[in-house]
Prior knowledge:
Largest sheet: 6 strands, parallel
Helix content: 40-55%
Structural class: alpha/beta
Number of strands: 6
Strand content: 5-15%
Radius of gyration: 20 Å
Amino acid sequence: MSTDPSRPSSAVRVLVVDDHPVFRAGMVTVLDDLPGIEVVAQAADGEQAVALAGEHAPDVVLMDLRMPGVGGLEATARIRVEHPDVAVVVLTMDSDDDSVFAALRAGARGYLLKEAEVDDIERAVVGAARGEAVFGSGIAGRVLAYFSGARPTVSAFPQLTPREHEVLELIAQGLDNTTIARRLFLSDKTVRNRVSDVLGKLHARSRAEMVALARDAGLGGQPG
C-alpha cells in the first residue's frame, strides 16, 4: 500500500477485498502504481472488509464475491447501509447474470471481471468515486438489455424469476437454446440451467409440455 507523500491528496482511496493473497497483493501493486489511486487497506474476507471500510473511510471498495465466511454480496450490502458514501465495485470471476444482478441489488455501483485490463479497472474505480455506474466489457450490454428490453409479464407463473420468465417467453416463441443465449447475452450453459429450472418449477416433463403451458398462459408472441 502506498505511503508516497507525493501522491495527490485528491487520490481515490481504495480498499481491496479478495481472499486470494497472491491476487490481492498483485491488485494492490497495480493500483498503487496509478497516480490517481491510493490503496488504504486490504481485506481477506467480507467481515474484515466491513470493519476496514469503517476504519479507513475509502472512496471505493474493490470487492470479490466468493470468499469464505461473509461473502462479497453480504459485505457489499452492509457497507452500503453502514457507509453509504462508500462505493463498491465488484471484481470477480463470476460472469453469470444472477451474480451481476444480485450485486446490483446489494448496492454495488459497478461490476468487473478479473480478466479486465488495468485501464478498465482504473476507469471503474475513478468513475465509481465520482458516483458513476461502471461495468466491464460484456456486462454493460447485458445490464442495458435487461432494463431496457421488453420483458414478459410475471403474473402467469409467479414462481419464476424475471430471468426465467424471459427464457420461457423465448422458448414459447420456438427459439432454441443457442438463439436464446445470443438474444439474452448469456452463455449456452446458463441457458441450459435456466431451462432446467423452469422445467422443474412448472413440473413439465418435456420442453414441448413447457411450451404448451406457456402458450396457454398467453406467452409466445412473435419473436422480435
